[in-house]
Design brief:
By secondary structure, this protein is of the alpha+beta class. It is about 55% helix and about 10% strand. A hairpin with a 5-residue loop joins strand 1 and strand 2. Helix 4 packs across helix 6. The longest helix has about 55 residues. The protein is elongated, with a radius of gyration of 46 Å.
């Protein structure tokens, strides 16, 4: 903040007051643009939750058509949490890309579990079915902890005394994660446009408490934002005011055309914060393209499915209320003559509902018979009421069938199977039953894939190498560790070479030349040297272009699969590998030159199975060894000598042995003569010494 303006990295100066006023106008314009759809969705949600304003007994008699249709479609379009699938795009033998895809896939699986992606997708599914639009918002969070550099907390250098702002940089990431936030359909706005690619800004509304606002924007921003929001909340209903009491609605806006983000309280003319986008994403938006229902090509305002059969539902509700009223009329109503104190009480007692079988005495039977006897009692005809009820039920049934035809529920009903049907008949019904909802299934599957891709992009760009390995459980060596092992190996080779040279100088033959017998590493170090380094993996993940070319992030189907699907895939893989090895072994014995072709064929087949990715590295190593052994040149067979040649060779060997023995005897004789000469010299020296001693005594 400089002179009450915000300076971004590009050198742009933004006045929070002017920016806030501009974005308040943009938000109001977008709210007017979506107002008709918003009001329609509010009514549909109340109908779905049975929260109508008219709560009279007659109005309560409704047929819950919207709830019934939604309950049928919910498991049909989404049944289980999507699982991330990260594969090499071209399935080639690239160990760095294979390890990178495995690490990213495991991090995505952990992120989905921590963010409770299943409940988020179910909420999006409900918004998608009711309001024809559902969306989420992704964030990156990291917790920091200070580094222990030996600086006392009371030391001024711990805060501002270190040169170059080093005091603020003495922190390390303790934990980092990708957060996936569900956004209610009423809390999401974007610029009016015909296509999603033409949208220039997106925004979501976040309810924040006073403590959250103070921690995020400061005390002054919290006070001004809360005051403005309180004034803007006057038009809310009593339930909404109770729900939002103590909270302030803050809009988080990402502007793609200006490349910045802004935070502004609802109704406040001053922006709380203007900054650079915290994430550098490929498509800029921190949210995927919403899951849209029915839309036209003229705008991004969706049309809820309930709109297309709302009139039929209203008629169904009308007939339901009419049937209930007519059912209330199905009561036995009796008319009898009044004024006779003896007969009237008896007739009334006989017609009581609690009297199943009674005998009522008539005091004056003659007077009763004179007035017609049983003809004196007349009942109201109910046959006509029953006919009207049957007609109303038939009309309502036809309207329900019409709704099923419009919504596609009829196809799902036709897809119901029986245990007595053949497998072919059940498969045909299953295909027919899903034909009308395939687009909805595909849209939610696309939405789940976009969520996974966004989370994968954030993980690749932001996560530290330690976090990637810790979450995935895959330990890779660093470049420094590999270099250290290589230096140790070189030192061992040099030591072995020096030992061999010393052995040769001392006249002892070396076991093998240093270059031919390198020192063997432990198995653990051998595996480490055969793995790519974490530096290579991170370099691949950080490079957007290479990552996009080599790694593809998808999801499996979001429709309820067969529970034995994974087992079946593994069994198919084992059968494929076993059958191939059996056939390839016989062919390899006949023609070893085909071994490299068979190895590549096996790897090509294994890369098509997700279950075979974990064995792919082992298959590559074994295949390389087999190919090397098959293609290695074999020594040519020596021709067998004739008997005469064998005799000559044997004679030459005997002569060479004799000469060697003679040479050995010559060496031994020379040694004996040398020792005799030494003994003779010693004897002569001793005799001379004795003669000298005798001469001295004389």
């Amino acid at each position: 903040m400089e002179d009450e303006t915000t300076v971004l990295e590009g050198g742009q100066h933004w006045d929070p007051a002017k920016v806030g006023a501009h974005w308040q106008q943009e938000l109001e314009r977008a709210q007017r643009y979506f107002k008709s759809w918003h009001d329609r969705c509010v009514k549909i949600e109340k109908i779905y939750l049975d929260q109508q304003a008219d709560q009279t007994s007659a109005a309560k008699r409704r047929f819950p058509m919207l709830w019934a249709n939604t309950a049928v479609l919910q498991p049909a379009v989404y049944a289980r949490v999507p699982q991330p699938v990260v594969e090499r795009r071209f399935k080639d033998a690239e160990p760095v890309a294979r390890i990178a895809s495995e690490i990213v896939e495991r991090n995505l699986a952990y992120t989905g579990d921590e963010a409770d992606l299943d409940s988020i997708m179910r909420a999006v599914r409900d918004d998608f079915l009711l309001c024809a639009r559902g969306t989420v918002w992704l964030r990156y969070e990291a917790d920091f902890e200070p580094l222990d550099m030996g600086v006392a907390p009371s030391d001024p250098a711990a805060e501002n005394g270190l040169p170059g702002g080093l005091g603020a940089a003495l922190e390390t990431i303790a934990d980092e994660r990708v957060c996936i936030d569900y956004v209610h359909w009423s809390d999401f706005l974007h610029s009016p446009a015909r296509r999603w690619k033409d949208v220039t800004w997106v925004a979501r509304r976040v309810p924040m408490s006073g403590e959250e606002m103070e921690k995020r924007f400061g005390r002054e921003a919290m006070a001004s934002g809360a005051a403005q929001a309180a004034g803007a909340r006057k038009g809310e209903s009593q339930a909404e005011r109770a729900e939002n009491e103590g909270r302030t609605h803050v809009w988080e806006i990402w502007c793609k055309s200006e490349n910045y983000t802004i935070w502004i309280a609802d109704g406040s003319p001053v922006a709380l914060e203007v900054s650079e986008p915290p994430l550098e994403l490929t498509h800029f938006w921190p949210c995927p393209r919403p899951a849209y229902g029915t839309m036209s090509t003229s705008s991004l305002i969706p049309v809820p499915d309930y709109v297309y059969y709302q009139q039929q539902c209203d008629e169904i509700d009308l007939l339901t209320r009419r049937i209930n009223k007519l059912t209330d009329q199905l009561r036995l109503k009796v008319f009898y003559p009044s004024g006779d104190g003896a007969i009237s009480p008896a007739i009334e007692k006989a017609m009581r509902p609690d009297n199943d079988m009674v005998m009522v005495p008539i005091p004056e039977w003659a007077a009763f018979t004179d007035k017609g006897g049983s003809k004196a009692v007349v009942t109201l005809p109910i046959d006509e009421v029953q006919k009207v009820i049957v007609a109303c039920m038939a009309a309502r049934k036809q309207l329900i069938e019409d709704v099923y035809q419009i919504s596609g529920i009829s196809d799902i009903v036709r897809g119901d199977t029986q245990a007595s049907e053949t497998a072919t008949a059940q498969r045909i019904k299953s295909q027919w039953g899903s034909i009308r909802i395939r687009d909805r299934q595909a849209e939610l599957a696309r939405f789940a894939r976009d969520i996974i891709r966004l989370a994968g992009e954030i993980i690749c760009d932001q996560f530290q190498p330690e976090t990637l390995m810790l979450v995935s459980g895959i330990k890779l060596p660093s470049m420094a560790e590999k270099q250290q092992v290589q230096m140790q190996l070189q030192q061992m080779q040099m030591a072995a070479g020096q030992a061999a040279m010393r052995a040769q100088q001392m006249g002892q033959p070396a076991q093998a030349p240093p270059a031919m017998a390198p020192p063997e590493l432990p198995p653990q170090l051998q595996r480490m040297m055969g793995q790519p380094t974490i530096d290579e993996v991170v370099q691949l993940l950080r490079n957007d272009s290479i990552r996009g070319f080599q790694i593809d992030i998808e999801t499996d189907s979001t429709i309820e699969p067969d529970e034995d699907a994974e087992k079946q895939r593994r069994m198919e893989f084992v059968q494929m590998v076993g059958g191939f090895i059996q056939q390839a072994g016989a062919m390899a014995q006949q023609n070893p030159m085909l071994v490299p072709v068979m190895v590549e064929t096996l790897l090509f087949a294994a890369r098509g199975f997700r279950a075979g990715r974990q064995l792919e590295s082992t298959l590559e190593q074994v295949g390389a060894q087999l190919s090397q052994a098959a293609t290695a040149p074999k020594p040519e067979p020596q021709p067998q000598p004739s008997p005469a040649e064998m005799l000559k060779l044997k004679t030459a060997e005997v002569k060479a042995g004799a000469e060697q023995r003679k040479a050995d005897l010559g060496v031994a004789q020379a040694e004996i003569e040398h020792r005799a000469m030494l003994e003779q010299a010693r004897g002569e020296a001793a005799a001379q010494a004795i003669d000298q001693m005798r001469a001295s005594y004389q």
